[in-house]
């Protein structure tokens, strides 16, 4: 019985349930008036929370946690029985005590990590292009001096700090819960001796601005990763923006879900965006004279071009000819670069972790004329859904 291990799917479900339970607990405590509100959302009043990492990396811990949960459930059941059915009172109480005593509580402390009052906060920005661009402004004003213009931690003040700032372009942002990043930016960080390593910005950035700067950091990290490794390592939403559609059915990009969205920034010389029944095409005219007449929808904010430049890791002026593809859940999955003859499965740059890397084209080899590269890409994208993890919890 003790070497029974949860499958990855079961573990994923368990983590989803645990995240949901903790989020529910903070709502319930606030509704009862036992805890307050911080930054517009119910506060997490405890000094610790469950850690996903321990459960993921040590299979035995997830099992023990389940036993304890089961014991707690049975004990509560016994207690309820004892209250309502007087004749069963003593056996029920005795059994409740017994299961609680037998549960493997000894490991409970390893499941816990320090929490902040905003640990379970969710970003309210909707990851809009506007939010990303405004976040960029806050970053340039407050953060560049330490974290550097490119987020790699080599700003002008960095050498004089007690601790070198981390590279924000790797996994780091996704290893944390977004609410904890929010807290760290507003209230700063300390090392284990209590010495301040990063100042807090609560007096310079309000709540909305803090969420905006986090949107910018994720867009920038994704673009830098794509430029360096050819992949979006972490699932990222298509930045949201207002659109105008022929049949007037949507006013925001996210309202096009659950359809797949092909976003085509087009410059002056770019051909018209092809209409395709498998997706909604959205043109983003980069110049006043760019043609977009055949697309299903037109997006028209300057902010969107800047945000797309960030997630692609290119200057907004170089966007013409790129295309981006978002799946039915709104995740950015594929991009094709200017000059590409068409789509192919190799353009799928945000993939599920379990997927084998796409085989690189042999140097010099002419890619075989794809019968329908887009169909192959869509099939692969649909067969391989991605999941966002933050702090190890599925979101
Ligand atoms: C005075 C230099 C300095 C400034 C200014 C600064 N940071 Fe930091 N930042 C650091 C250092 C140093 C660390 C690493 C601290 C640690 O791990 O204890 C850090 C860590 C971080 C982290 C990682 C947090 C985590 O959970 O590990 C984020 C995100 C971050 N900074 C964002 C920002 C943002 C956004 C701004 C501007 C609003 C900013 N920083 C301004 C020095 C700075």
UniProtKB/TrEMBL annotation:
Residues of the Cytochrome c domain: 130-221
InterPro entries (UniProt xref): Cyt_c-like_dom, Cyt_c-like_dom_sf, Cytochrome_c-type_DH
Keywords annotated in UniProt: Heme, Iron, Membrane, Metal-binding, Transmembrane, Transmembrane helix
TM region positions: 64-85, 92-113
Name of protein: Cytochrome c
């Amino acid at each position: 019985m003790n070497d029974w291990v949860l499958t990855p799917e079961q573990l994923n479900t368990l983590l989803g349930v645990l995240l949901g339970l903790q989020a529910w607990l903070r709502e319930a405590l606030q509704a009862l008036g036992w805890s307050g509100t911080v930054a517009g959302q119910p506060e997490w009043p405890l000094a610790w929370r469950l850690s996903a990492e321990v459960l993921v990396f040590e299979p035995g811990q997830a099992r023990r946690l389940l036993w304890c949960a089961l014991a707690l459930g049975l004990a509560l059941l016994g207690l309820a029985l004892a209250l309502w059915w007087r004749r069963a009172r003593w056996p029920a109480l005795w059994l409740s005590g017994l299961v609680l005593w037998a549960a493997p509580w000894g490991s409970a402390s390893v499941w816990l990590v320090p929490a902040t009052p905003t640990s379970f906060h969710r970003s309210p920005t909707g990851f809009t292009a506007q939010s990303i661009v405004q976040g960029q402004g806050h970053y340039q004003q407050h953060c560049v001096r330490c974290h550097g213009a490119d987020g790699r931690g080599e700003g002008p003040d960095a050498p004089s700090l007690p601790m070198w700032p981390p590279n924000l372009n790797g996994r780091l942002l996704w290893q944390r819960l977004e609410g904890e990043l929010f807290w760290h930016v507003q209230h700063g960080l300390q090392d284990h001796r209590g010495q301040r390593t990063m100042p807090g910005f609560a007096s310079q950035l309000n709540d909305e601005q803090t969420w905006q700067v986090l949107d910018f950091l994720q867009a920038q990290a994704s673009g830098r990763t794509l430029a360096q490794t050819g992949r979006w390592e972490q699932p990222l939403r298509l930045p949201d923006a207002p659109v105008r559609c022929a049949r007037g059915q949507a006013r925001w990009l996210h309202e096009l879900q659950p359809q797949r969205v092909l976003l085509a920034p087009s410059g002056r010389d770019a051909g018209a965006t092809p209409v395709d029944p498998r997706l909604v095409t959205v043109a983003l005219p980069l110049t006043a004279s760019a043609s977009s007449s055949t697309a299903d929808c037109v997006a028209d904010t300057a902010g969107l071009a800047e945000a797309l430049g960030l997630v692609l890791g290119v200057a907004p002026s170089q966007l013409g000819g790129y295309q981006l593809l978002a799946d039915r859940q709104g995740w950015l999955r594929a991009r094709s670069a200017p000059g590409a003859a068409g789509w192919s499965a190799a353009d799928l740059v945000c993939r599920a972790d379990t997927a084998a890397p796409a085989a690189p084209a042999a140097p010099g080899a002419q890619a075989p004329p794809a019968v329908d590269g887009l169909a192959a890409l869509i099939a692969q994208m649909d067969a391989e859904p991605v999941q966002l993890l933050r702090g190890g919890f599925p979101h």
